[in-house]
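New here. Your pick:
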Amino acid sequence: MRSPRTPQDTCRVGITEFDSLLQKAQTKAPARSLVSIDDVGVAVAFLGMNGAKLITGETLYIDGGYHIID
C-alpha cells in the first residue's frame, strides 16, 4: 500500500520549521526554484542517452545552483 502523502509531506513530519526552510532554500538558490522529481527525471534521462556515454565519475548536482553557495 502506498502512502497518499507527497514527498514534502513525508519530509515535513517532525520538522516544525519545514515551510520556512523550503522558502529559504528557494530564495537562496541561484535558479530561485526548488528541485522537482521531473528535474531529476530529465537529468537521469539525459545520462541514459548515447550522447552522455563518456560522462563517468561525475557528481551531477540537480539543485538549481544551491551547492555553489555556502
User: Anything to note?
Assistant: The longest helix spans residues 18-28. Helices lie at 7-12, 18-28, 37-47.
